[in-house]
Design a protein that fits this description.
Distance between the termini of chain B: 53 Å
Order of helices and strands of chain A: HEEEHEEHEHHHHEHEHEEHHEEE
Oligomer: heterodimer
Distance between the termini of chain A: 41 Å
Helix content of chain B: over 70%
Strand content of chain B: under 5%
Shape of chain B: flat
Helix content of chain A: 25-40%
Order of helices and strands of chain B: HHHHEEHHHHH
Structural class of chain A: alpha/beta
Number of strands of chain A: 13
Chain lengths: 285, 271
């Protein structure tokens, strides 16, 4: 399946390249701050990895970008338009936004609530009021693309972890969104499934889609992102190319992305930061 | 060997999940009720439930119960499963409520207990029997609707009768919440078992279950909020949209007429 270049470029009247603009964003869960004064700009067609330790605010940021949460302070704009709950009360805008920006949740169980895999994948297109024939053809094509056609009539609750993740991805891929927000898409997957998902992300990159992936797996970021945003305690700690970020050991240790690794050589024990890298560095010391 | 309280709870959760999944399978197989438009099923079975509620004669309620049995057989719903899942449970709950009526309703005594201080009257027995029969029959019709109709079709049918979007969203979420609750509970109890050496005394197991209940509730509520966000994220706006188009065929009109006539006659004869 070929991925079409986004509809966004046609829709944005000014400032063509800027997709998301977050200024001084704050967000709290029951008075516990998750994001604190976060500012970020995301340009159309970018592939970004949000790197951060557990609790650094990655998932919250993705939910804000998907307009599921709204910041308690600061401003969030999409294509130059400020996103507010009131704006999402308008059906036309809400459906158009949901068509363009899609989120794959970290826990596939929350995303699977239909009786069969087919119904699950068809859920999004039906909500977006696509014509019946288009729904059928897109769902069938997506099931083939994701290699889950054989699961079509199975209840999603009964699938293995890897299969659930693929169905959750398919339920979003079917919408052919311009912006994909992926929350830990490769966590808990076996190596082959991880590799297939990385291939998919690379396809989306090639098709000029905007792909924002939250992860703490350093070994995959070079493959999936052209820019890394490091989050630390709800703020942007650093941003740069994978080469710049991955070579900054001090930053990685501070952001809790690498850990001290103890070795014993004969009678001598010493520790140093431990970094796995996928393609270039191997197991780097 | 008898199972402990926790193990029994896990098995019950697992069975509940299997039953819920089995309902969707029954709903998708061919059968009498399944062949009718979901809106006809909804109105027709509601009419019969109404007739059961309005009928004052036990014979008429029993006739409606027989009709429910026939509907179940022709819709390929297992009578054994209905007996275990519906009739016995309803009997247990309604029986507790109906039992005092057998003693308290004035009338001709048929059984005298405790030296004459407790008397079961014929009128009391009739009242209790009518109450139990009504509840059993009404619940059987409702169960048949749910078993023979995919949940999404039930919701779409309700929506086509102008039930507010908010109510539909609540029903949709409730259905998913039950699944989540069962899944989460099952996982929590399994993790408990994996960390428990030997078998705890029954009282301790029950205490542990009670302590777990609160945590389970808040966990599953959190999860269900995430499910709602995931639905929103894919464009859910409160309306149920499914691939199947509801179109009334001549057979649906026949079915609707049959339901309404049966309900009307039952109300008339059961006055």
């Amino acid at each position: 399946m070929r991925w079409r270049r986004g509809r966004l470029a046609r829709k944005v009247n000014h400032n063509l390249a800027l997709l998301f603009e977050l200024q001084d964003i704050g967000f709290e869960y029951d008075c516990v701050p998750a994001l604190r004064g976060l500012s970020l700009q995301i340009v159309e067609g970018e592939s970004i990895a949000l790197l951060g330790a557990n609790g650094s605010g990655k998932s919250t940021l993705l939910r804000i970008l998907n307009a599921l949460y709204f910041p308690s302070h600061g401003s969030l704009s999409f294509c130059g338009r400020r996103l507010t709950p009131q704006l999402f009360n308008q059906d036309a805008f809400a459906l158009s936004f949901r068509r363009q920006v899609a989120l794959v949740f970290q826990n596939p169980d929350v995303q699977l609530f239909n009786p069969t895999v087919f119904d699950e994948v068809a859920f999004g297109p039906l909500q977006l009021q696509w014509p019946r024939e288009q729904v059928l053809s897109r769902v069938n094509a997506t099931l083939e693309l994701m290699n889950i056609a054989h699961l079509r009539d199975r209840p999603p609750y009964r699938l293995s972890g890897g299969e659930k993740k693929r169905v959750a991805l398919a339920s979003v891929v079917v919408l052919d969104p311009d912006v994909l927000l992926l929350d830990e898409p490769t966590s808990t997957l076996d190596p082959r499934s991880q590799s297939q998902i990385i291939d998919l992300i690379q396809d989306w990159k090639g098709a000029s889609k905007t792909v924002i992936t939250a992860t703490h797996q350093l070994e995959i970021v070079e493959d999936i992102a052209g820019r890394i945003v490091v989050l630390e305690e709800g703020k942007v700690a650093a941003t740069g190319t994978p080469a710049q970020i991955l070579s900054n050991q001090e930053l990685l240790v501070r952001a809790n992305l690498v850990h001290a690794h103890r070795h014993s050589h004969g009678g001598l024990t010493h520790s140093h930061p431990h970094l796995h890298s996928h393609s270039k560095h191997g197991h780097e010391h | 060997m008898s199972r402990g309280f926790v193990e029994s709870t896990i098995v019950s959760f697992s069975r509940a999940l299997s039953r819920a999944l089995m309902s969707e399978e029954i709903a998708r197989q061919p059968g009498l009720l399944q062949s009718l438009d979901p809106r006809v099923r909804l109105i027709g079975l509601f009419a019969l439930v109404l007739a059961v509620t309005l009928s004052r004669r036990l014979a008429i309620v029993l006739a409606l119960f027989l009709a429910a049995l026939l509907l179940a057989v022709f819709s390929r719903v297992s009578i054994g499963a209905l007996a275990k899942r519906v009739w016995l449970v309803v009997l247990a709950f309604t029986g507790v409520i109906a039992l005092p009526a057998a003693f308290l309703t004035p009338g001709r005594p048929v059984v005298v207990l405790a030296g004459g201080s407790l008397r079961i009257t014929a009128q009391g027995m009739a009242t209790a029997a009518l109450l139990i029969a009504r509840v059993e029959t009404a619940v059987t019709f409702t169960t048949l609707l749910v078993l023979c109709t995919p949940w999404a079709h039930v919701l779409k049918a309700l929506r086509s009768f102008r039930l507010p979007q908010e109510a539909i969203a609540m029903l949709a979420m409730t259905h998913r919440y039950v699944f989540l609750l069962v899944e989460t509970a099952s996982q929590m109890f399994e993790s408990r078992v994996s960390r428990t050496v030997g078998r705890l005394p029954g009282a301790e197991q029950r205490r542990m279950t009670a302590r777990t209940a609160g945590v389970l509730l808040s966990k599953s509520i959190d999860l269900s909020q995430d499910v709602y966000l995931a639905m929103q994220s894919r464009g859910f706006r409160g309306d149920i949209r499914i691939l199947a188009d509801f179109r009334l065929k001549p057979w649906d009109y026949v079915g609707l007429l049959a339901f309404l006539c049966a309900g009307g006659v039952a109300v008339w004869l059961g006055r």
